[in-house]
C-alpha cells in the first residue's frame, strides 16, 4: 500500500496488541494518522504483531497503558490524547473463555465500551467512535444470511456482553448525537490471529505436524459453520465506517460459510495432505489417506455449553454505503496462514 503522507488526524485504538489492532495501526499510519494504541500492563507485554508488521518503532505510533474497565482511566485517556476517532477493539474476545469468566467478560467487553462512550460524552462529543460488534450477537439462527436487521439471540456470555456494548453505542448515538458506529463483523482471520481461535489453531497444528513437532490435532465441534474473511480487509471497513457521513450499523462478511471440518481439510491440503474423515460424534477422526495415520481427533473439552451453529453474513449495506467488499478467498486466506505457520515453526518460534 502507498503511504499517503501525514494528516492532522489523531486516532485512538484500544487493544493494539490484538490481531485487528495491529492491522488497523498499519492502515492508519499509512494514511498519515498520529496513532495512539493502548495496551494493558502485564509482567511482560507482547508486541509481537506490531513487530511482525515492522511498526513497533514507527515515529507516529504512541503506545499508552490503559485498562478498559477503569472509568477514570478512560476519561483521562480521552482528555490526554484528544483523538478525532476512537476504535474500540479491546475486549475479552474468546467465546470459550467467556463461559469460564462471564463476569470479567461482562466488565471488559460490555462495560468497557460504556466507559469510553461516557468519556466521549463528557470530554468531547464530537469524537467519532467505532465499536467492534460481532456476528456472535446473532447467535442462535433466526434467519440467514444475517444482516443489520436480523434479530439478535446471543449464545455466550461474550455475545451477551457485546450486545450490551452494541446497544449502548446505538443509544449514545440516538440520545446524545454522538457519532457512534457499530461494525457487526463476522469472523476474520489472518497469520496474526491468536492460536486459541480455531483457524489459527488448525494452521499452526498443520505446520507442527508437517515438521514432526506434533502427532495429532484435537478439536471440538467440527459441524459449526462460519463466514471467515481476511482481517486486513475488515479493518479497512472499520476505517471507512468512521469516514461516512452518518453513524450507522454495518455488517462486514464474505457471504460464504464453511464448516470447521472443511477448514481442516483445506489447511491440510495446503500443506500437501489429503485427509479423510471417518466416524461420528466424539469418535470422529481424520486420517491421512497416504499413510493411514490419524491426524485429527475430537476432544470434548473443546465443546461449548451452547454453540452458534451457522453464521453467514450479508455485507450489501456496507458495499452500498461504504464501497466495501471482501477480496481474499477462504482458500487464499488458509494458504497464507499455513505458509506463515510453516515459516514460523521452521524458524523455531510461533506466537
Ligand atoms: P484480540 O483478542 O486479538 O485482541 C483483543 C485486544 O483487547 C488485545 O489487545 C487485548 O490486550 C485487549 N484487551 C483485553 N482486555 C483488555 C482490558 N481490560 N483493557 C484494555 N485492553 C484489553 O481480538 P481481535 O483483534 O481478533 O478482535 C478485535 C475486536 O473485534 C475485539 O473486540 C473482538 O471481540 C471483536 N471482533 C473480532 C472478530 C474476529 O473475528 N477477530 C469478529 C467480530 C468482532 P492483551 O493483549 O493484553 O490481552
Ligand atoms: P468464534 O471463533 O467462537 O466464532 O469467535 P473460534 O475460532 O473460537 O470458534 C469457531 C468455531 O470453531 C469451533 N471449534 C473450536 N474452536 C476453538 N477455538 N478451538 C477448538 O479446538 C475448536 N473446535 C471446534 C467452535 O466451537 C466454534 O463453533 C470468534 C472470535 O474472534 C470472537 O471474538 C468474534 O466475535 C467471533 O469470532 C465473530
TrEMBL record:
Keyword Lyase: yes
Pfam family membership, one: GDP_Man_Dehyd
CDD domains to which the protein is assigned, alphabetical: GDP_MD_SDR_e (cd05260)
EC number(s) given by UniProt: 4.2.1.47
GO BP: any one term: 'de novo' GDP-L-fucose biosynthetic process
Enzyme class name: lyase
Domain of life: Bacteria
Keyword Lyase (UniProt): yes
Catalysis: reaction(s): GDP-alpha-D-mannose = GDP-4-dehydro-alpha-D-rhamnose + H2O
Alphabetical keyword list: Lyase, NADP
Cofactor field: NADP(+)
SUPFAM superfamilies: NAD(P)-binding Rossmann-fold domains
Domain NAD(P)-binding intervals: 12-337
GO molecular function, a single term: NADP+ binding
Function: Catalyzes the conversion of GDP-D-mannose to GDP-4-dehydro-6-deoxy-D-mannose.
Family: Belongs to the NAD(P)-dependent epimerase/dehydratase family. GDP-mannose 4,6-dehydratase subfamily.
The protein, known as: GDP-mannose 4,6-dehydratase
Species for this entry: Ramlibacter henchirensis
